[in-house]
Structures are given as structure tokens and as C-alpha cells.
Amino acid sequence: MKHLHLSPLAALLLAGGLLAGAAHADPLVFDAAGNATFSALHAGPGSYVDEFLFAVDPELMGWASGTAAVGKTWINPNRLANYGISDITFFRVNLDNSRTNLLSVFNGGAAIEFYPADPLVAGNYGFSVSGATALAGRGGSYAGNLNLVTAPVPEPAGFLMLSIGLGLLGLCARGKADNKLG
To answer: Could you give the CA distance from residue 7 to residue 128 in angstroms, rounded to a whole number?
Structure first.
């Protein structure tokens, strides 16, 4: 697996996106296995939207998949979740720093899972985490993991050779049709 890194253009685009109001200053950094961690801590009650940015190398495409968990705290004799995540949505950061939301899957509850519905091609991306503190007068937190499995982008010549091969197989199969039946 190839390591993910930021090109100078990607770094510039992400920096521009950060200046436009993203909640976290550093893009996610993936390890050699394609994992990156993220988290947020909110000091007081209210609703929040946090954004986390990352890039997919120009020679790669990938599938992203994430999980998250909310923090718990002692309230009287019980341990209760002090933050609720209501949605996580992926977006693509365009060349003009505008954003295009991607079709995203979010499964909330005790075991939060999220992922974009389609593979990610080379470019700059992010995801937004929407939520609120669950307990009045108390802060909240959450943490998660994003996994990005990447593969080289297939060359156009490979698609051409595959198409030609399938066409030849079709011609061979057509030539073997039994003319005695009809």
C-alpha cells in the first residue's frame, strides 16, 4: 500500500478550506495501514459541527470507512453519554474551495459507522460531524477512526484491453452457435 501524502496543491487547498471555517487545524494523517484518528471536545452545552479534512493521492483511489464513539461521564450514580452525534457527511473540496456533499451512509446509535457511498478518487475531501451535548450544563466529547483503503487508479489502456478481450470472447461465442436448431 502506498503512503498518503499531501501535494503542495493539496496542502494549499486544505489550508484554504481551514481558513474558511473548518473546526480543526490539521488535516488527518493516515498511518501505513490507512488509519487516521479524530476527536473533538466541547466545553459547554449546545450544538456543534466539526470538520475533518484529508486528501487522496493523485495516483490512487480509495474506499473510506469510519467509526466513532461518544464519551461518557458520571452523572449521579450512572455513567451517561455526554454527547450525541446526529450525522456525519462526507464532502469533496473543489478547486475554488467550495464543497460538494457526497452521498454518505451514517448508522448512528451505540456503534456509530459512516462512509461515503462511492469510492473516492484523487482529490481533497473531508467529513462533518454534527451533534450536540446531551446533558444540560455539561461538555461533551467524541473520538473516532477513519480507514482509507487505497489502490492505484486503473490505466485507460487496461480498460481498452479488457473491452477488446470481452468483445473477442463474444464473437467467439457467437460463432459457436448451433445452426441446426433454428
So the answer is: 23
pLDDT of residue 115: 97
DSSP string, the chain: -PPP---HHHHHHHHHHHHTT-S-SS-----TTSEEEEEEEE-SSSEEEEEEEEEE-TTEEEEEEEEEEE-EEEETTEEEE-EEEEEEEEEEE-TTS-EEEPPEEEE-SSSEEEEESS-B-SEEEEEEEEEEESSTT--EEEEEEEEEEEEEPPPHHHHHHHHHHHHHHHHHHHHT--GGG-
User: How many CA atoms, within 13 angstroms, populate the side-chain half-sphere of residue 91?
Assistant: 22
Q: Quick: pLDDT tens for 137-150.
A: 778 899 999 999 98
The predicted model scores a pTM of: 0.71
